[in-house]
Design goal:
With about 425 residues, the protein is an alpha/beta fold. It has helices at about 80-90, 105-110, 125-135, 145, 150-155, 175-190, 195-205, 215-225, 235-245, 250-265, 280-285, 300-315, 335-345, 365-370, 380-385, 385-390, and strands at about 1-10, 15-25, 30-35, 45-55, 55-60, 95-100, 120-125, 160-165, 270-275, 290-295, 320, 350, 410-415, 420-425, 430. Helix content is about 35%, strand content about 20%. The strands form 2 sheets. The protein has an 8-stranded parallel sheet. It is globular. The model has no long low-confidence stretch (mean pLDDT about 95).
Length: about 425
Amino acid sequence: MLVVLTGTVITGDGATVHEPGHVVIEDGRIAQVGAGRRAGTGAIDVGDGLITPGLVNIHVHCVTLGPAHATGSKSPTEAEVLAFKARHLRGGTTSVLSVDGFPLWAEYEALAARHPLKVRKCTAHTPANVRAAEMADGEGLTDAHRRATVDELIEQGAVCIGEIGAGGTLGGGMQDNIYIPAAIAERSGVQVDPFQARALKEAVLGRTINPANLDRGALREAMVAAGLSGVMTEDAVIETVERCVMPSMEHAYEGLREAAAASARLRRPFMVHHAAASAEVVLEIANDRMIAAHANHPSFTVQESIRYARALRARGALLEISGLNLFTRTKGQQDAEPFLALVRERLADFVGTDYAAGHYDPVSVALSAIVRRGLMTAPEAVALSSGNVARRLPAFTDAGLLEPGRPADVVVFNPDLSAVRAVYVDGRQVFGTEH
C-alpha cells in the first residue's frame, strides 16, 4: 500500500524541516522523505499540519500486565492496560519503554498483539529491589517474580535494567498519591490530597527523606492545612509517615547499586529514579550507561535540578525529564519549574511522561508547552521524544526518525503540537481523521 503525506515535515533529527514537504510510505516503511508537495495516487495533503515521527516515550508505566512500578504493586487489569496504551497512542506516541521492571516475559507478551502501540521492556529483578518492593507494597509479586533474574529477562529480550527505585520505595510521588493518604485515612478517617500528603511528608522527613529533617513548625502548619489538627497528634503523624516511607529506603539504595553492577556486567543501559532522596547515590553510580529518570523531580529546587543534571552529564549519563500532568493541573503549578529550567539550559536528552498516579498527559502535551513558551523550536522539541531516542538508544527502537527504511510510524499534529490529527503505525492509520 502506498501513502504519500504532504505538509510541513519534521524529520525528528532536531533540525530538518521540509516546508512544504512529503513523506512516502510503502509496505509499512518510510520510502522517501523530501521537500515539495506531492500529488497523485495515495496522496494526502494535511494542510497546515505537522508531519513528524511517531513519538517514542521512554518512561511509561502500566502498559503490560504484571507487577506495577518498582513497588511490585498489583497488576493493572487488561482493560486498564489497553486504556493506557490508547491514551499514549492518541497523544501521538507510537513506541514506549515499559519501565515496570517486575513483569515476567509472558506477562509482557500477553497483550502485545491487542494494540498497535509498540512496547519494549525493562527488568528490575535483583534481590535488593525485590526487598524494597515488598517493604513498600509487593502485592503483585509472586514467587515466580521473586525468583526471576535480570540475566534471564535480558536474555529473553528486555532492553534496559530499570526503573530502579520509585516514588513508593524512595519517598516520592507514590507516597504522596497513595500510601500516605491511605495510612492517614485508616488511622484518622481524614482524607488528605496528594499535595497535603507531600507537605506532611516533607515536614517530617524533608525533601531528602531523612528523619533528622523533622520540622515541627512546618508539621503543625501542614496538619492545619490537611484538617488533622485535633484529630491526630504530631507524634502520630510522624509515626504514620515514617512507617509508610522509611522501611524500603535502604533496600532501594542498595537496589540502585545492584542495578549499576548488573549494567556493567551485562553492558546494558539502566534507568534510575532520580530525586532529592536518591540524588547522591545516583551521582555515585553514574556512568555513560545510566538514564536518570525525571531529572525534573518535584522534590528538587530549580537550582538543585540544574546542578545535579550538570554533574550527571559530566559522568556521561543521559537525562529524561517527565511531563507528568505538569501543564494541565490547576494545583502545584510550581512543580513545572525544574522541567522548564532543564529545557532552557539544554540539559534534557529525552522527554517522557512517568505516571502521576495515572493522571499523566501524553508526552506531546509537554512538547507543545516547550514550543508555546519559546524554549525550543518545534523540530528541537519533537527530537526530545523521537530522534534523540533513535540515535542515542538504538536498542530501544528502530523508529523515531523519518528516514528511508525505518518503520512508517508517523503522526500528523496541529501546527503547535497541541492536538493529534492522525497516527500511523507501520504505515497503517490507527487513529485520526486523515485518510
